[in-house]
Amino acid sequence: MLYSYHTGSPGGYTGSFMDNRNCTQCHTSFASVETEGWITSDIPESGYVPGETYRLTLTANDMNAVKFGFELTAESGDTKVGTYTITDAVRTKLIYNDHPLTHTPGGIDPVGHGISWSVNWTAHASSADQVVF
């Protein structure tokens, strides 16, 4: 899910089951935007390996948007899982005890009709049934 807040999300607004809130609590002038396929990664189709680090890329496109933003979390059941490592501190940052990830003011301006952010995610030490980003 893709949501925006100029300085980055205050945290807990991913729209996930655990957060139970989304961007419309602060941004009331538009409907929330749920976009499938906007997160890509190098996690193999067979699944992640506990302790291994993977590259996540978040891409948003909208010909009419003048700013973009996001908040991203990784969850398995009722637990936030994995560890993010910032690869571009000008455009991304961590919040809430380093989980979740959001944009910075330097990471909201589109390039053409879209924008991309990248981050490394290290899978948690124990195997989980499924991780949802």
- The gyration radius over C-alpha positions equals 14 Å
Give the full name of the CATH homologous superfamily: Reeler domain
Shape: globular
- Please name the CATH architecture: Sandwich
- Number of discrete domains: 1
On the 0 to 100 scale, the average pLDDT is 78
Instruction: Tell how many strands the DSSP assignment holds.
Output: 9
Strand content: 25-35%
Count of individual helical segments: 0
Q: Quaternary arrangement of the chains shown?
A: single chain
Going across the major beta sheet, what is the strand order?
1-2-9-6
State the share of residues found in helices, binned by percent: under 10%
CATH topology name: Immunoglobulin-like
Order of helices and strands: EEEEEEEEE
> Which class of secondary structure composition applies to the elements?
mainly beta
State the end-to-end CA separation. Answer: 9 Å
The CATH class is Mainly Beta
Low-confidence stretches: none
Write structural notes for this entry.
- The protein has 133 residues and is mostly beta strands.
- The chain has one domain: Immunoglobulin-like (Sandwich), CATH 2.60.40.4060.
- Helix content is 0%, strand content 28%.
- The protein has strands spanning 39-41, 53-61, 71-72, 75-76, 79-80, 83-86, 92-94, 101-103, 114-122.
- A four-stranded antiparallel β-sheet has the order 1-2-9-6, with no helix packed on it.
- Strand 7 (92-94) and strand 8 (101-103) form a beta hairpin.
- The radius of gyration is 14 Å and the shape is globular.
- The chain starts with 38 loop residues before the first strand and ends in an 11-residue tail after the last strand.
